[in-house]
Every structure is written in structure tokens, then in C-alpha cells.
Amino acid sequence: MMGATVFGVGFAPVAPGTFGTLAALPIFWAMSKLPVAAYVGVLVVLIGLASWVSDLAEHLYDDHDLGHIVVDEFVGLLTTCVAIPFSWKSAIAAFVLFRFFDIVKPQPIRWIDDHVRGGLGVVLDDVAAGVAACIVMHIAGYVLKVKA
């Protein structure tokens, strides 16, 4: 299940979710050069693929949201970065905010995590955490008058 583990990143001996999130940073850099509509289009495809491979992994290992499955964190970070210009500051902020929402799981993220099953459930709570982090990123950018 190379896709579900992001080519083995999920087998990190500690904090595989953190490493799965870090693995998305170079892809954020590359995708940040795309127009927003193209970024979102690629992201939707990646979310669909992530749901599919997570579902396959869940059936293969007979375990929901196995720790080695980190493709959900990967697409969650990319969700955080929609319409965010790449810089190391934005990458660090996106990483910290996404991990916060992914770990703490405030409502409705917690509800999604508790009630949505299958590969979609594995991925959707991370996408929701990414949306929450993205909103915070955009509000902070507006308040701090960060230029694109």
C-alpha cells in the first residue's frame, strides 16, 4: 500500500502522521505555482485517490485509520494551502495549524472522525482539519496584510 503510506513515509518509527504531513510540503511548493482552479482540481483528484487507497488499506489490514496510513495527512496539508503563496513562513504556519486541527479535532472534525467510515472517513476528517487551518491562514494573512 505504497500510496496509503505515501511511498513508505507512514512507516516512520515515531509520529508517522507528522512525517506524512511533512512529505506534502514539497508538493505544496510545486502546486503553489498553479492557478487556484488548477490547484483545487488536482487536490480534488488527490482526495479521491487518497480515499480509494485508504479504503483498500482499511480492508487489507482490517483496521480503520491505521497509523501507517498517512495519505490523509498528506492531502490535509495540501487542503490547508489552497490559495496560499509558498514561502517557508507559510509552509511552517500551514504545517503547525493543520497538525493542531488534526490532533485536537474540534467539532465538526471530531464528528466526521467518529461517524464517517471507510476510506472517505479516513480522509475526510483531515480534509476538514485542512479547511479549518486554511480559513485561519487566510484570516491571518488578511489581518497581517500579507501580500501574495
Q: Alpha-carbon distance between the termini?
A: 37 Å
Question: What's the alpha carbon Rg, rounded to whole Å?
Answer: 14 Å
β content, as a range? under 5%
Roughly how much helix do the residues carry, as a percent range?
A: 55-70%
Summarize model confidence as the mean pLDDT: 95
Would you tell me the structural class of the helices and strands?
A: mainly alpha
From N to C, what is the helix and strand string? HHHHHHH
Shape: globular
The beta-strand count equals 0
* Count of discrete structural domains: 1
Poorly predicted parts: none
Tally of alpha and pi helices = 7
Short description:
With 148 residues, this protein is mainly α. The chain contains 7 helices and no strands.
List the helices and strands and how they pair.
Elements: H1 16-23, H2 25-31, H3 36-61, H4 71-80, H5 88-104, H6 109-115, H7 118-143
Helix pairs in contact: 1-4, 3-4, 3-7, 4-5, 4-7, 5-7, 6-7
